[in-house]
């Protein structure tokens, strides 16, 4: 008997499409949604994807293993809401919503985007506060650090609890460099910049990052990895330097180490975008906590307005951050990329229309975008060179198991 293997992309709704039969609009829409929004999660190993319940496990252990995903999403907001409601009732902060309602509304979307992409919630909070609400960039930066210390740490917990894959070399080495860069930036770089420079440099650097993402997406069917291959001292140095510059960016914009890590991991070390995104969330969570501590406990310099916005926004971000991380771990990388493209186009156009920078600052911003594109292009070439030096460079890509068995292989997504 002859067996015929039917490609998965010709199977729709349980039926088989002949080569001459065109799928209907409903079938194409279903396949589109499945590919870009239900791709499935990447896990460190098969045990993380399908946890094995050990013999003799207690009912609590069994419940925790069987409902890992639900608990990963529920635990952070339950913990944070318990703390917040205790504080809010005891200090009667509800009257603040009469004047500080704008940021809870903004971060309803900002925390979700921050948890889903590699940008962090500050990528939405900072431009909204500085460009649209005309708030001092220092206050906006502090608020971004403060709110990410709640929202992004909640998202980080969700990622860790679900057991999805991370690049731990980046977490360790970038965090070390980012801590030094953040403190140096707060003390030296940020005071030397004007308000207009902070606003325009932010949108320009983020636009350059969108260029990096575009370059990445031009590399069709590229081989990707779970972690940095053949890790050595000079690769560790690259990660430390990456973290250092990311920390400086965070020092005046409230976020930045995330996009620096993402760019280096994907372009230079050929790490899968979803893994780089999840790793970036852990990095910005740690950097935000460090910055919050430094500004609040070492310098005692956080403005009362930032505290008020923070108090009102906490209950929103501790839900939307983990939700974004959960959704982001399922969707296709192109979906995440287009979310970044749209955000950066809006921020860049708004920056030039609202700030109206002079000729000199405008030329510097254009230079940052063009120079950033050139820099990321060189990084992508370096990544392709390194890719050819790995022992399995010519072997099929079998990077990670994914939960959705009908999804394409990582190399083809």
TrEMBL record:
It holds the Pfam family TauE. This is Uncharacterized protein. Keywords: Membrane, Transmembrane, Transmembrane helix. The chain crosses the membrane at residues 71-88, 108-133, 145-164, 170-188, 200-216, 236-269, 281-302, 308-328, 335-355, 361-379. Its main location: membrane. It comes from Plectus sambesii. It is a multi-pass membrane protein. The keyword Hydrolase does not apply. It is found in: Membrane. Coiled coil: none annotated. One of its GO terms (cellular component) is membrane. The keyword Cell membrane does not apply.
